[in-house]
Amino acid sequence: MTQHLQDVVGKLYRSPVDHARQVFTVSRSEAERLPRLPSVAVISITAPERSTANLDGFDHLLRLSFADVDFLKSDLSRKAIKSLTHAFTPGHADMIRSFVESLPGEITAIVVHCEGGYSRSCAVALGLHRLYGYSVEMEHLAHANSSILSVMTGHDSMDRSRAEHRQLAISRDAEKELKVALAGGTRFERKSRKSLRRSVPRK
So where are the chain's domains? Predict the structure, then answer.
C-alpha cells in the first residue's frame, strides 16, 4: 500500500471535522484496494482502451470513460489529436453532477480515480470543490486537466457550448491536417516514381 493510499484510507475512517463532504484522488490500482465503506462513493475514470476497474462492493459508483486530453491547448501533439474523439464532454459533466447531487447524506467522502491519479481525477475533484464547496487537498491537484475543469465548471449553457464547439473545431482541423498530410504523401510517392522511371536507362 502506497503512503498516499494509507493517508487517504486513514481519513476515510475519520469523520470530517467541519462536516463538509471530502473528495480524494487516487490512481486506478489504489482505488481497487480501497476498503468498501458505506460512507464512501466512487467516481471511476478509465481510459477508453482499458477495461473497467475492479470496484465491486461500492453501493454508490459512477463509471466514466474518456481520454486524458487537454483540448483547450493550442499545441496538441499527434497523440492528443487522435484522442479528441474520446475527450471529456458536457455530457460527462452532467453525469457527474447528477451522481453527486443524488448521493444520500451519509456519504461523507467521494473518491475519484483515473489511471494515474494525477490529471483527470484531479480535475473532477477540483471541479466538485468549486461547484459544491467540498473539501479537497489542493497540494495533490496541481496537475489537474484544465479542459476538464473548464467544462465541469461552466456556469451556463453558453460557456459549455463554447467548450464543446472548441472540441469539434479542433477535431475538424485535425482531420483536415491528416487529409492534407496523406495527400502530400501520395503526391510525393507519385513524383518519386516518375523520377525513378526517368533515371532508368532505356535499352
Answer: 3-194
Cell 496523406 maps to which residue? 182
CA angle 154, 157, 158 (to 5 degrees): 90
Burial readout 129-156 (b: 16 or more C-beta within 10 A, e: otherwise): bebeebbbbeebbeebbebbbbbbbbee
Closest C-alpha to 90, from 146, 159, 43, 44:
159
Q: What is the pLDDT of residues 39-54, one digit of tens each?
A: 999 999 999 999 999 9
- The DSSP secondary-structure symbol of 85 reads G
C-alpha to C-alpha distance for 27 and 45, rounded to whole angstroms: 10
Q: How far apart are CA 57 and CA 60, in angstroms?
A: 9
The second-level CATH assignment, the architecture, of 3-194 is Alpha-Beta Complex (3.90)
Grid cell for residue 77 = 501533439
Q: What is the DSSP letter of 152?
A: H
* pLDDT at 172 exceeding the cut of 80: no
Rounded distance between C-alpha atoms, residue 52 and residue 59, angstroms: 16
Q: Give the burial class of 95: count Cβ atoms within 10 A of its Cβ; 0-12 exposed, 13-18 middle, 19 or more buried.
A: middle
